[in-house]
Amino acid sequence: MERFHGAITALVTPFIDGRLDEQGLVDLIEFQIENGIHGIVPCGTTGESATLDFDEHKQVIDLTVKTVAGRVPVIAGTGANSTSEAIELTESAKKSGADAALSVVPYYNKPNQEGLYLHFKAIAEAVDIPIILYNVPGRTVIHVLPETVARLAEIPNIVGIKEACADLGQISDVIRFCPPEFVLLSGDDFSAMPTIFTGGKGVISVVANVDPGGMARMVEAALGGDAVAARSEHYRLFPLMRLMFKSTSPGPAKKALELLGRMKDSAPRLPMTGPDAATIEALQAELRRLGML
User: Fold this and answer.
1) Where along this sequence does the record place binding of pyruvate (predicted)?
2) Collapsing DSSP states into helix, strand and coil, what is residue 68?
């Protein structure tokens, strides 16, 4: 598997009484690697980066890098809607030994395309680390457009993008506008398989928290051109993929891990809350159907 290709887990951050559960984080990482995952993203959206302070952010990335110990790439979430803060987080991730940084489109302040270009350019020029852009308009309001991605792909250490736009038209434009070596990763589990067959190189996945082996098998099959096997695994996982977003992520993923005995406390930090009773019941039923409970 090439670097930054494959099934990469957007890892949840375990807390106990609101504080980082270090042993819980180590155990989750080992579970991922033992089940064949191809990479780990700490401090992404699923890792509740928005409610981690700087010291916690660094602590999670440091511990992830130390635990992974080079077995798979670590792509550290370091995005912010302040360019100077994003640079500071990216510098810290590099010092921690992360293999790459995942930098989200700035949220809330709604920069135009030139502002987006200059934001990411400034980060890339300030920190010599591979950078993967992260487009998630459902959370940031704005898109980084394919033409802007193509401009950014000319910067040597901007090596790829996580596309969570759920739009195969936009994904196709990014792939056709950018150099062949530029890595496009799906940011949505349900679109991972079609994205790969369109030319993507994998997925940064939420459902992989719960079933890393299944997601790894699906992506490996798709990257290997085995459409039958990829489609079979896609439809096996599809109901669980849907449930990961039945209430706001990462609540359902954390609850599923608690139900499986892999997390002591599934409560996300406020203002996030856990899933409602109906979602928990649906998660239990689906985990039973999959033979996991």
Assistant:
1) 46, 204
2) helix
Residue 1: predicted pLDDT: 73
- Per-domain residue ranges of the chain: 6-226
In whole angstroms, give the CA distance from residue 196 to residue 219: 8
Q: At residue 63, what are phi and psi to the nearest 5 degrees?
A: -70, -35
Report the alpha-carbon angle 144-212-201, nearest 5: 40
Are residues 91 and 104 in contact, defined by beta-carbon separation less than 8 angstroms? no
Q: What is the fold of 6-226?
A: TIM Barrel (3.20.20)
* Residue 262: count of CB within 10 angstroms of its CB: 18
Q: 231-242, pLDDT tens digit by residue?
A: 999 999 999 999
CA-wise closest residue to 74 among 93, 90, 58, 88: 93
Query: Is 37 known to sit in a ligand binding site?
Result: no
Report in angstroms the alpha-carbon separations of 181 from 6, 48, 187. Answer: 15, 30, 19
- Does the annotation list 204 as a binding residue? yes
Burial of 165 (0-12, 13-18, 19+ CB in 10 A): buried
Q: Which positions are annotated as active-site residues? A: 134, 162
Low-confidence stretches of the chain (pLDDT beneath 70): none
